[in-house]
Amino acid sequence: MDGLELIERIDRWGTLAPTAIAHESDGRAITYQELKTHSDALAGCLLDELPDDRSPVMVLGHKEPELVVAYLACIKAGHPYIPLDTALPAQRLEIIRASSGARLTLSPQGVHERITLHASARPSETPHEGATQMENGSFERVAYKPEDPFYVIYTSGSTGTPKGVVISLGNLNSFLDWMLVEHPLVEQDEVFLGIVPFSFDVSIMDLYLCLYAGGTHRSLTRDEIGDPARLHRALARSGATAWISTPSFARLCLVERGFGAGTIPNLRRIVLAGEVLSHELASELLDRFPGVPLWNAYGPTEATVLSTSVQLDRELLGRYPDVPIGFPRPGGSVLVMDENGQPVAEGERGELVIVGPHVSPGYLNRPDLTSQAFFTLGNQRAYHTGDWGRALGGLLFFEGRHDDLIKLHGYRIELGDVEAHLKALPGVQDAVVLPTWRDGQPERLVAFIILSERPVRDDFQATLNLRRHLSERLPGYMLPQLYRFVDTFPLTVNGKADRKKLAEMLT
Ligand code: AMP
To answer: Does pTM top 0.85 for this prediction?
Structure first.
């Protein structure tokens, strides 16, 4: 894909299939024609509001059609967008605003107001620098280079400050080129389920593949997902042809015994990514959706959504004790390296290092963190994932991490991030956060706390206080569920809190 071909193609559906639904959520829908005219109008407003400026724009909401309008408008106006979910508390949003240099935050309401205002205003008389006048004169498109940032996704950072992964236009085009070969979308009747929030990059795959195909993106809200009966009804009514989610979501659906191919009869593919997929879950999905291709895919945000994938069948599952994460995508490679940066022998364990055109330029405004994780190999960009893995006959296997990053119910969490926020609370002298494990997966977070003073030995009250303060700083999925108050931490020989011993206290 070249330049802004993706955006041009989405716009073209506005003429070819004007009344087709592009995105729908919570009973509200937007057609392709509306998507085109509204995003053009909003882009015009952005060009006026932020003239000669390419600063990132924060887009804050939860699955509303206006968010999709905002993403396209930002790109048309030359601004990378930062998709943010309303699950984030105000303090964390403020940290992101300040560190990203964003000068504007668009909410669904703000999008709506600008479009309405634009409809009643005179078209701009002076074209903006670097912008192109479109045929109908309604919108001026800003020129893009492959290295220009397209979106920035914020992930948990180990010191308590989230880090913004910059994905360039070239990165995204390279990802989509691969996806369109692996999942050719010839039908306009594609219905993609929008399961994960837009702030999680798995959504990049379902949103843009869907809009590219001229299909319908049917986004499930947090409330729908949180209520099993509603979720089942929503899935049954969805007419979905494509399901892309974390294994955690799949597990949630399978709790309903009757859930299967009969519930989503048009389903053509299931792609799971973002966390470990167990044998048992993969087999259960093959049983419940016979004949529907099931894929496992792997990749960090830093390498544009996915870097490996593989279609699973019983024969493949039977061959290995762990479910493989797949083969490296074409045009890129995944090396298994030792601590000296040398490739390990076939079948040996090492760090997964991703190389290729889909590897991000780095973290926004954080050259320090960028140089720690990214490097150049030959003439290609490369990224240290921090994941352990091994390769057997070209097929890759994931074997955990060598740092404190975990995936809890599909969410990426640096334990150090939660700890830093706990330590910043009044009365907390020190804190260690650990996951509990079930069937090899993190199940919930436990915080071990040393309080500076415990005058009233009322742990219940102390827990409530900490939870309340912490929820002002962190989204709900990052909050520990258990708090254990201790007077001291057991120490390692180096004098650090001994996490192993603390973990043993939980068993
Ligand atoms: P994120 O940036 O949120 O996509 O998280 C990336 C991390 O999630 C990776 O570095 C892995 O640790 C983990 N991950 C992603 N996909 C998989 C998978 N298929 N199997 C196991 N772990 C995965």
So the answer is: yes
